[in-house]
Amino acid sequence: MTTLTHRTRRTEVSKNSEKKVESEEDTNQERSLDNEDSGDSKDIRLTLMEEVLLLGLKDKEGYTSFWNDCISSGLRGGILIELAMRGRIYLEPPTLRKKRLLDRKVLLKSDSPTGDVLLDETLKHIKATEPTETVQTWIELLTGETWNPFKLQYQLRNVRERIAKNLVEKGILTTEKQNFLLFDMTTHPVTNVTEKQRLVKKLQDSVLERWVNDPQRMDRRTLALLVLAHSSDILENVFSSLTDDKYDVAMNRAKDLVEQDPEVEGTKHSATEMIWAVLAAFNKS
User: Counting beta carbons within 10 angstroms of the beta carbon of residue 60, is it exposed (0 to 12), middle (13 to 18) or buried (19 or more)?
Assistant: First the structure.
């Protein structure tokens, strides 16, 4: 869907026990999310969708490239990964008939609210859907790319604007109106440049100074963000400030990362299954 460019440019007791274990797992996953975020920002916690949009926005203009038709799907993929990381959804276990990531259905683990409107709206759709759907189908449904009129209800509307408003509330963006001859458009220029630079540096360092050459040893959220930046066709934005030599190294390493076989990597650690499933979905598109 996107390409990486080089610069030329049981009993009641057992049931209660199971619920307790599941509750503890959910709590641990939320704590893990906090720990992974704590090293990145002291005060501001961003969702994967917010990070993707922030990376895709032009700082002064406050909008994404008109030529980028990938970021909408990338944001929906980010929603699925974020829900999985928060312990709300997971992929059904592999079977003889359903070994591939793209054949396995997305299942509900917990319907407890996340506090994020887009995540909770998606969670309600997943809970209400029978039969269950695959990762690729969910990305298409949430984006509105379906020929089935009965499934248009699953489309998430005004996603960029809603995410942008979250970033405005967090003090990272502001809201302005710009006139484009034939129409007015709401834009969201970056006001907290430090936060965006922190995010950019985090990704640059992950493929340069902190490169581990093994996806399984990478921080999960950093791995997810690199995959989503690639799928949203915004990696160029992340690495454009680097010198030519570092740019080439960063792009080559990012290219090697996203060209890993999702089926192989997804079997190594269940915590990263959804990340690789989303990448597999975009590779197939």
Answer: exposed
Q: Binning pLDDT at 50, 70 and 90, where does residue 3 land?
A: very low
Cα distance between residue 234 and residue 253, in whole Å: 15
How many domains would you assign to the chain? 1
Token pair, residue 113, equals 């609210």
**Residue 15 forms part of a structural domain:** no
Q: What is the pLDDT of residues 174-225, one digit of tens each?
A: 999 887 767 788 899 999 999 999 999 999 999 999 999 999 999 999 999 9
Q: Decide if 41 is inside a domain.
A: no
Per the structure, the complete domain to which residue 69 belongs is given by 48-283
Q: In the predicted model, is pLDDT for residue 251 greater than 70?
A: yes
Predicted confidence (pLDDT) per residue in 77-113, tens digit: 999 999 999 999 999 998 878 889 999 999 999 999 9
